[in-house]
Specification:
Elements (H helix, E strand, L loop, with lengths): L2 H5 L8 E5 L3 H13 L3 E5 L2 H9 L6 E5 L7 H10 L8 E5 L3 H9 L4 E4 L4 H11 L6
Parallel strand pairs: 1-2, 1-3, 3-4, 4-5
Length: 137
């Protein structure tokens, strides 16, 4: 599937996706693809910023987060998101180039799904659509 056809993909009503990624270029690219695919997008450069967004009242329906981040790493953030009253039941997709073992561990720690970097954009969009809260289908 081409990039153009991947971003032409439209989820039913705007699901809010929170992208948590410390690499600015990757974060920007993910946000652009998700926005072009019909998602309302929130972005955070790390765990502390993501938790501030939740504490300020933001309500994502999906979270796409990196595992290896400076400051609050993805492991700590994953636990905090699962413990946070506003994100306890939100589907969380963990992305990482750390390898299969790290991704399997993330699943055991509460990730709804994982994607190994680099990943195919169309595969990511299909995965997010499957995980999108049922009320939005």
């Amino acid at each position: 599937m081409s990039y153009a056809s991947a971003i032409a993909h439209e989820p039913a009503p705007a699901a809010v996706a929170l992208v948590i990624e410390d690499d600015a270029d990757i974060r920007e690219a993910l946000c652009e693809v998700l926005a072009a695919s019909g998602y309302a997008v929130l972005a955070a450069s790390g765990g502390a910023e993501a938790l501030r967004l939740l504490d300020a009242g933001e309500r994502p329906g999906l979270i796409l987060m990196d595992l290896m981040m400076p400051g609050m790493d993805g492991w700590t953030l994953l636990g905090a998101l699962r413990a946070h009253g506003l994100a306890a039941d939100v589907p969380i997709v963990v992305t990482s180039a750390a390898g299969v073992e790290a991704l399997e561990s993330a699943r055991r720690e509460g990730a709804s799904a994982t994607l190994a970097k680099p990943f195919d954009v169309s595969r990511m969009l299909r995965l997010l659509d499957r995980l999108r809260p049922r009320a939005l289908h």
